Amino acid sequence: MTDRPILSRRSFLAALGLTGAAALLAGCGGSPVSSSSEAPASSEAPASSAASSQVEPDPFLTPEEFPGLDGSTACIPLMAQMMADTTGIDLAEAQSAVTVSTTAYAWENLAVYDSIYVQMLLVYEAPDYVKDEMEQAGIPLEQKAVGRDALVFIVNQDNPVQGLTLDQLRDIYAGRVTNWKELGGADSPIVAFQRGEDSGSQTLFKKLLIGDGELMEAPTELAPAAMGELVDRVAEYNNSANAIGFSVYYYIDQMYSQPGLRLLAVEGVEPSAQTIADQSYPLCNDFYAVIRASAAADSPERQLYDWLSTSAGAACIRKAGYVPA
Which top CATH class is 9-148+287-324? Predict the structure, then answer.
């Protein structure tokens, strides 16, 4: 991390100036970026590791050249660090410039609507319905894994259950297990939150945990549209400890946690940067950089895309607090 001041979460959220999911705004120096419809979150990241601090940034783009980015909410801190490292602007300025339209809309902006404002994505996997839209649109893309994250499950800290197996989690979300006492907890009903179909975390949840298995339909009040809203509701549900929900690790760890929440171990492994890096935590998944295949070799987006595979790019990913893929 830089030794320059970082915006507080409250100040950063004010700077984002939330608009509709499909709206677009001009980023730093005129570089366009998408705006967020997710619950807002700070892009502050933990202190950099010794390994990342050994590679000094060498800016090669001007702020005006920096490509229009879109992507997943949990990638905002990385986008800001990328902008700071490759243009030389202050990290706080980069944090105030970068917002996103969230996973599904980001994929659509680049690969369905062919938006002139978006040249590159930092993004989690697309929902199936968006994959179908992209196939019909037929815009050739290039993508590569640049970082690794994980699906994590959150409960109230007063819930005595410390961990669950994959089968127990599947049973909860299939409606086969409905009371915490069946899992070694208190005699209280399990309130299982999900996300909407256009959510990146819901896509990971179905891919990594549910697969072709049974999944109960969540009522509207248990399927909030925004990632932060899910975190809030699990923390506050009826002032009790019977709720469970999920998110991605870096969103909870870096961007939007709440007092009174705890991450569950899965198959006896606690989620952490280390267990994600060595993949001992069982619900790991990559996230991606994506550009149009037609991007010219000297275009800013192609330069930025290639830079992410260099030692400087890996250092940037670590500096932002993520595990490089």
Answer: alpha beta
